Amino acid sequence: MSNPSLLILPGDGIGPEVMAQVRRIITWYGDKRGLAFDVSEDLVGGAAYDKHGVPLADETMAKAQEADAVLLGAVGGPAYDDLDFSVKPERGLLRLRKEMDLFSNLRPAQCFDALADFSSLKKDIVAGLDIMIVRELTSGVYFGEPRGIFEEGNERVGINTQRYTESEIERAARSAFELAMRRGKKVCSMEKANVMESGILWREVATRVGKEYPEVELSHMYADNGAMQLVRAPKQFDVILTDNLFGDILSDCAAMLTGSLGMLPSASLGAPMANGRPKALYEPVHGSAPDITGQGKANPIACILSFAMALRYSFDQGSEADRLETAVEQVLADGVRTADLLGEEGVTPVSTSEMGDAILAALDASL
Ligand code: NAD
Ligand code: IPM
Ligand code: MN
């Protein structure tokens, strides 16, 4: 049998910097654990625009459809701010999500013990935190029609449409309940049913799907209250189910509970392929971080933990995913810190590649 295929799309800004560390870890798994992947690399975002005039070439899209999993760094950056909307780097990522039909975006927020002091919240509020945000990723206001900027009388109007079908809500909800069954058996669904019809339907469908999972406790919360509760008492949550836009915002908010946006991985999963595994793209939650690009300061952990999620969700290698997550935990416990994680006096930050060195050493020590 051939090796599983991995398509790597480093993208822009710190994307290639953090992905370089992931590539070392992929090589380590091939050398030391006999887990070889057929790795290919391609362009996305501004890097693809520079070469092809579009943020995702059709050939790259086709490769992504064929791959067993896609790993993406980040897209975007100030150099591309003035591009026409249709070719902005972010459109490349959105095309991947839409055409691969990656409807379920898993964004775990876990606070490693060693970092409980780094959150902007008090230590006892975040210590031991382990929540999972399930963000619907292929619909809602990100994709709804009509959309655009139109002339209306003597001024312009910008329009986006929040739109959800029952089946779109249902499949996202089902993935949240399935996850909850393997975790703390609680789902909190967040919408704004008080002001949005799509929210009313969301609540109704989530409730209906929930009846199939009698062991899971389902609660509902307005998303604005949810944002407040996430910073007030985040440990009340197990799985949070929410739509595309609320999920985008709530997951950045959850990032700070873990100490840094540089820590948060994600998995975007679709329907099962012929081999039974879901179509999947893995990427850090953070962006291209133009303010620190090219300085060796980027924290590669979010991208590395995204590869751990790939091991778990695409390659059935849960214990190897545990090994990688434990190596990261060990390195943090040893006090190794990139600049985004500084807080303690007298600690000198390590560079992106030194963080990679430390994680590889911890992996070696795990053998
Ligand atoms: P960002 O996530 O790029 O940066 C926000 C802040 O967090 C910055 O101060 C940055 O230095 C810091 N940061 C982020 N990741 C870090 C890491 N790994 N290590 C250390 N510090 C880190 O968000 P932004 O500044 O709002 O957006 C910049 C660009 O990235 C925009 O073009 C945006 O559209 C794009 N973006 C892309 C993605 C993606 O590719 N999935 C996600 C978010 C934003
Ligand atoms: C994210 C990002 C993306 C989003 C952008 C870059 C399209 O913010 O993955 O969180 O809004 O979904
Ligand atoms: Mn975001």
Automatic annotation (TrEMBL):
SUPFAM superfamilies: Isocitrate/Isopropylmalate dehydrogenase-like (SSF53659). Binds 1 Mg(2+) or Mn(2+) ion per subunit. Mg(2+) binds at residues 224, 248, 252. Gene3D superfamilies: Isopropylmalate Dehydrogenase. NAD(+) binds at residues 77-90, 287-299. Catalyzes the oxidation of 3-carboxy-2-hydroxy-4-methylpentanoate (3-isopropylmalate) to 3-carboxy-4-methyl-2-oxopentanoate. The product decarboxylates to 4-methyl-2 oxopentanoate. PANTHER family: 3-ISOPROPYLMALATE DEHYDROGENASE. This is 3-isopropylmalate dehydrogenase. It comes from Aliisedimentitalea scapharcae.
